[in-house]
Amino acid sequence: KKRLDLAGPLLAKLFRGIMRRVNTELSNYLKRCVEGNRHFNLAVGIKPGTLSNGLKYSLATGNWGDQKKAASSTAGVSQVLNRYTFASTLSHLRRTNTPIGRDGKLAKPRQLHNTHWGLVCPAETPEGQACGLVKNLSLMCYVSVGSPSEPLIEFMINRGMEVVEEYEPLRYPHATKIFVNGTWVGVHQDPKHLVGQVL
């Protein structure tokens, strides 16, 4: 159950922030027009470069967030893609960054956790201060979009899954445990049949 901030949600968050600013500016302009008894012009109310300049600033500098609130923005989010070799490009595309200060001497955030097995490469990490904080996803690892697990659990209950709260180990000692997103949700007598129905 690892969380990663990927390009899509980051761009969506940035776009949402810029659009919120556009809405605020437009409502302020509308108030001024009403108070001054002037004609409302939409082309004047929406500045043409607000959206594009906001996106360009974040992508060009790497400071992710509002240009006017530079102190609260995250630095180093967008980077120039490494194109030295094909392998270095693949490596750069699969790089993850832990947002912790590089100067700290703490060993725990730099070590791989047991749950990283098969997800994070145990060998590929830079030397020096960023060691262990900059990691790389394994070649076969992929990131899925988060979605609620309740519909899947309901689907499996309708297909004969016994909920973990109602499970009696003495009655079904050889039942197969069912995990959804790392959480034990129930057991099933015929797991092969259930897998066939879920897939």
TrEMBL record:
<keyword id="KW-0804">Transcription</keyword>
<feature type="domain" description="RNA polymerase Rpb2">
    <location>
        <begin position="79"/>
        <end position="143"/>
    </location>
</feature>
<protein>
    <recommendedName>
        <fullName>DNA-directed RNA polymerase</fullName>
        <ecNumber>2.7.7.6</ecNumber>
    </recommendedName>
</protein>
<dbReference type="GO" id="GO:0032549">
    <property type="term" value="F:ribonucleoside binding"/>
</dbReference>
<dbReference type="GO" id="GO:0003677">
    <property type="term" value="F:DNA binding"/>
</dbReference>
<dbReference type="GO" id="GO:0000428">
    <property type="term" value="C:DNA-directed RNA polymerase complex"/>
</dbReference>
<dbReference type="GO" id="GO:0003899">
    <property type="term" value="F:DNA-directed RNA polymerase activity"/>
</dbReference>
<dbReference type="InterPro" id="IPR007645">
    <property type="entry name" value="RNA_pol_Rpb2_3"/>
</dbReference>
<keyword id="KW-0548">Nucleotidyltransferase</keyword>
<keyword id="KW-0240">DNA-directed RNA polymerase</keyword>
<dbReference type="InterPro" id="IPR015712">
    <property type="entry name" value="DNA-dir_RNA_pol_su2"/>
</dbReference>
<dbReference type="GO" id="GO:0006351">
    <property type="term" value="P:DNA-templated transcription"/>
</dbReference>
<comment type="similarity">
    <text>Belongs to the RNA polymerase beta chain family.</text>
</comment>
<keyword id="KW-0808">Transferase</keyword>
<dbReference type="Pfam" id="PF04565">
    <property type="entry name" value="RNA_pol_Rpb2_3"/>
</dbReference>
